[in-house]
Design goal:
The protein has helices at residues 2-15, 19-26, 42-46, 51-75, 80-92, 105-115, 117-134, 137-146, 148-154, 161-174, 176-183. By secondary structure, it is an all-alpha fold. The protein is globular.
């Protein structure tokens, strides 16, 4: 129990590093929370017009989740799920930014890849296919994450079903505004110049 709490808290601190906020500030672009959706994720960073910063944010947000899980599993394999949850919660609700974080797409994929790499690959492929077909980031993310419980069963990790359901619930909660707009057919497409809240 103590080990799980340590893994959860340690991963939370790592996951709460706001790379999107840090990179845009360092680049002299101001506070990313004042741009577009107000989100600290890669999609919103892209709204600054700096594709390199957006790519770096995407990579680093994914890596921090994967690294948190990998470190925990190095010490004890059973600590992976606790670290995964901690890292995701850290990104969604970072203490450094008054718990106003991202929507967890890159970090969520990162933690799932570290736990079961075929699941992570499946998520990435699903996101890419959906994004290419519909050009809507939030729809691609919701589809990729929505199938995680099925994915972990297919790849023989039924022990991760509780975690996968929690991850899905968190991601869908953070995308509640996007889901509302999707139902009303007014969700912005990838690359659209919009100040509306989106999936970033």
């Amino acid at each position: 129990m103590t080990e799980r709490l340590i893994a959860l808290f340690g991963a939370y601190l790592l996951g709460s590093i706001p790379f999107g906020w840090l990179l845009t500030r360092a680049a002299g672009l101001g506070d990313i929370r004042d741009i577009g959706s107000g989100n600290i994720g890669a999609t919103n960073v892209l709204r600054t017009g700096n594709k390199k910063l957006a790519a770096a944010t995407l990579l680093l947000d994914g890596l921090k989740g994967a690294v948190a899980v990998s470190i925990a599993q190095h010490y004890l394999p059973s600590l992976g799920p606790a670290a995964a949850l901690g890292a995701l919660l850290g990104h969604l609700f970072p203490v450094w930014l008054k718990f106003r974080g991202g929507k967890g797409v890159a970090t969520g994929i990162g933690v799932m890849t570290a736990l079961v790499w075929p699941v992570g690959v499946t998520m990435m492929v699903t996101w890419l296919l959906m994004a290419k077909r519909f050009k809507i980031s939030s729809l691609a993310a919701l589809t990729a994450f929505g199938f995680i419980p099925v994915d972990v069963i297919v790849f023989g990790r039924t022990d991760l079903v509780p975690l996968s359901l929690t991850v899905v619930a968190l991601i869908f909660y953070k995308h509640k505004d996007n889901i509302h707009r999707l139902f009303h057919l007014n969700e912005p497409k990838i690359g659209a110049d919009s100040q509306n809240k989106s999936a970033g």
